[in-house]
Amino acid sequence: VQLQASGGGLAQAGGSLRVSCAASGDTFSWYAVGWFRQAPGKEREFVAAISASGGTTYYADSVKGRFTISRDNAKNTVYLQMNSLKPEDTAVYYCAATGSAVGVMAYEYDYWGQGTLVTVSS
């Protein structure tokens, strides 16, 4: 499966952005999808994940209550709605997919998109 992340950009602190992950090349509804992010000079970290059916979601503590992950299997797309953005949310956001159970570790994901930059100004 091929993944294309989009929707990043510049937002002010307290604002909102929605990033999308569009999939192609296989039956998207078979795959769990996760969002990870990497800030300059930092390691990649887990943000949120959703199971293939959409029935199970996980969030990092740092984004819980502010970010919402969802998917539309008819459109082969996973969304990450980001509200109440903070400057520390600034990072390149990557989506990833796995044909196995949804997880929170990067090594559990086999397919990665190219990333989209989110910048939050204070």
Task: Provide tags for this entry.
122 residues; mainly beta; 7-stranded mixed β-sheet; 4-stranded antiparallel β-sheet; 50% strand; globular
What are the SSEs and their pairings?
Blueprint: E1 2-6, E2 9-12, E3 17-24, E4 32-38, E5 45-50, E6 57-59, E7 67-72, E8 77-82, E9 91-98, E10 111-112, E11 116-121
Parallel strand pairs: 2-11
Antiparallel strand pairs: 1-3, 3-8, 4-5, 4-9, 5-6, 7-8, 9-10, 9-11
Helix content: under 10%
Report how far the terminal alpha carbons are from each other.
Answer: 37 Å
Give the quaternary arrangement of the chains: single chain
Largest sheet: 7 strands, mixed
Classification by helices and strands: mainly beta
Strand content: over 45%
Instruction: Calculate the mean pLDDT score and round it.
Output: 96
Number of strands: 11
- The shape, in one word, is globular
Roughly how many Å is the radius of gyration? Answer: 13 Å
Q: Number of helix segments? A: 0
SSE topology string: EEEEEEEEEEE
Structure overview:
With 122 residues, the chain is mainly β. Helix content is 0%, strand content 50%. It contains no helices and eleven strands. The strands form two sheets. Strands 2, 4, 5, 6, 9, 10 and 11 form a seven-stranded mixed beta sheet that branches. The mean pLDDT is 96.
In short:
With 122 residues, the chain is an all-beta fold.
